Amino acid sequence: MSSEFWYEIAIAFCLVMILEGVLPFLYPHRWRGMVEQLANIDDRTLRIIGLLSMLAGVLGLYLIH
Q1: What local confidence, expressed as pLDDT, does residue 55 receive?
Q2: Can you list the pairs that 23-28 forms with residues at least 24 positions away whose Cβ atoms lie under 8 Å?
Q3: Given CA atoms 64, 59, 14, 6 in this order, what sign does their dihedral have?
Q4: Helix axes 3-26 and 28-39, enclosed angle (nearest 10)
Q5: Using CA atoms in the order 15, 19, 25, 26, what is the torsion angle rounded to 10 degrees?
Q6: Distance CA 45, CA 38 (A)
Q7: pLDDT (tens digit, 9 = 90+) per residue, 7-63?
Q8: How far apart are CA 50 and CA 39, in angstroms?
Q9: Which residues of 27-58 are buried (b: 16+ CB within 10 A; e: fewer)?
Q10: Distance CA 54, CA 61 (A)
Q11: Distance (Å, whole) CA 34 – CA 39
């Protein structure tokens, strides 16, 4: 794999980290409550949510590219 590929992966990872950090930074109390609620959701529902999130991301990339 070329170095350009790894460069793009690094950029994508950094953007994910930035986006993941916004809510805990801006609303730590609400974020903590949301994490507590997520802890009570069963595994099957979490997997479905994860799958839908991944599919939305793939669709978004397809539409952008």
Answers
A1: 97
A2: none
A3: negative
A4: 100
A5: 140
A6: 10
A7: 999 999 999 999 999 999 999 999 999 999 999 999 999 999 999 999 999 999 899
A8: 14
A9: eeeeeeeeeeeeeeeeeeeeeeeeeeeeeeee
A10: 11
A11: 9
In this structure, which amino acid lies at residue 58? V
Instruction: Please tell me the predicted confidence (pLDDT) of residue 58.
Output: 94
Asked if 4 and 11 count as a contact pair (C-beta separation under 8 A), the reply is no
Instruction: Kindly report the pTM of this predicted structure.
Output: 0.70
- Report d(CA 23, CA 32) in Å as an integer: 10
CA distances from 27 to 20, 24, 32, 54 (A): 12, 5, 9, 25
DSSP structure class, residue 1: -
Specify whether the CB–CB gap between 55 and 48 falls below 8 A. no
